[in-house]
Design brief:
about 200 residues; seven-stranded mixed beta sheet
């Protein structure tokens, strides 16, 4: 769940405590679209990503506007958005059910793919009052059958939180079991019972 009080930790101290597959959530900033996204999702979060270690480098795997899927150093992200990146980890009760490396591999496969604008518009559309009342209830995602190989990518591009929940489902758990991937927002991940808040990253 979203933390009521923040625990701010300098990046140099926090990085060794972050594991591949940890959830990264970005708090809203001063940019006006952030306030619209946060208000629509009833949350302080506007973006979701995943942490991944590549040898000695701690990376941020994400889907971003205009660029699509990418991998960037998490330290750069923290400098650009100080005090806005929250780190969440899987709760101990579900850690043994998740293949973290598979989740990371799934997110890495999305690097270079376009951003899911169409999927994002559908989410925004469903927040409109009249549409919310008249739209049919969301259907569940098809179950994932792991065969040792990653299944094909979804037929259309994804936005940030959609990609993250898709990767976790491939890895063995569904953070939002009553919500399809295409309608999962950053706030839904923060409210998921599978995750626990650990700390907020600040520059050194």
């Amino acid at each position: 769940m979203e933390p009521s009080r923040l625990r701010q930790v300098p990046y140099s101290q926090a990085r060794r405590r972050i594991r591949s597959g940890d959830l990264l959530l970005l708090r809203r900033g001063r940019w006006w679209p952030h306030w619209l996204i946060a208000a629509g999702g009833r949350t302080v979060y506007v973006h979701a990503a995943m942490a991944a270690w590549w040898q000695q480098d701690l990376m941020c795997l994400e889907m971003v506007w205009r660029r699509g899927g990418r991998a960037v150093c998490l330290s750069h992200q923290v400098r650009q958005c100080p005090g806005q990146w929250d780190v969440y980890s899987l709760r101990p009760v579900v850690k043994h059910k998740v293949d973290r490396l598979l989740a990371v591999r799934a997110m890495r496969r999305l690097t270079g793919t376009p951003y899911g604008w169409r999927a994002l518009v559908r989410v925004i559309w469903r927040h409109l009052p009249l549409v919310r009342w008249l739209a049919p209830g969301p259907s569940d995602d098809p179950p994932v059958v792991l065969t040792g190989q990653l299944p094909p990518l979804p037929p259309e591009p994804m936005f940030c939180s959609q990609a993250v929940v898709w990767a976790y489902r491939l890895a063995g758990v569904d953070p939002a079991p009553n919500l399809p991937d295409r309608l999962t927002e950053p706030g839904d991940l923060a409210r998921s019972p599978l995750f626990q808040y650990r700390f907020t990253l600040i520059p050194d």
